[in-house]
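Work Package 3 committed the consortium to producing structural models of liganded targets before the mid-term review. Because experimental data for this complex are still outstanding, the team generated a predictive model from sequence and the ligand definition alone, so that downstream docking and mutagenesis planning could proceed in parallel. The input record is reproduced below exactly as it was submitted to the modelling pipeline, together with the SMILES string for zinc ion.
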Amino acid sequence: MEPNIVLGLAKRRGFFYPSFEIYGGMAGMFDYGPLGSLMKQNIENVWRNYYIVKEGCAEICSPVISPEEVFKASGHLAEFTDFSVQCQNCKDAFRADHLVEEFVENADSLSREELAGVLKENNVKCPTCGGELSPPETVNLMFDTQVGPVGGRTGYLRPETAQAMLWRL
Ligand SMILES: [Zn+2]
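The resulting structure, written out as tokens with the ligand in place, is given here.
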């Protein structure tokens, strides 16, 4: 089934739909409708049953924002990155490795220079408009913010869900 068919069905039936749609939406952000919220709770309960009941862990809750020191120590600030290219015409951005998957195996393991070479050799253009693409750039995927009423302390949203959810008993 095509992804757009699934997304259209989910939207019509109220499972989930793009957040802030009347203001143009934001890529990757969705709201759960009444049925979607119930489905999400069911999935979370399956997860809880597996990890808490069967695996003997205890669930803990922690803030979704952690201080910069945590992610320096974990290596996420240095390593949680993708190589991205941007269309010079329409300004859409793409993961460079996704654009070369049809030409090479293990595209996600290529260096920036290797990705640039594959993009050039295969004359890869913008999938949206056919425009010229920028060279691959390293993009850190962390979402940062300033913590406190006057800022001064950088924090980040958790980039992965595994860091503060489980506590082995
Ligand atoms: Zn474009």
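Reviewers should note the following from the model. The CA atoms of residues 67 and 155 lie 4 Å apart. These observations will guide the Year 2 experiments.
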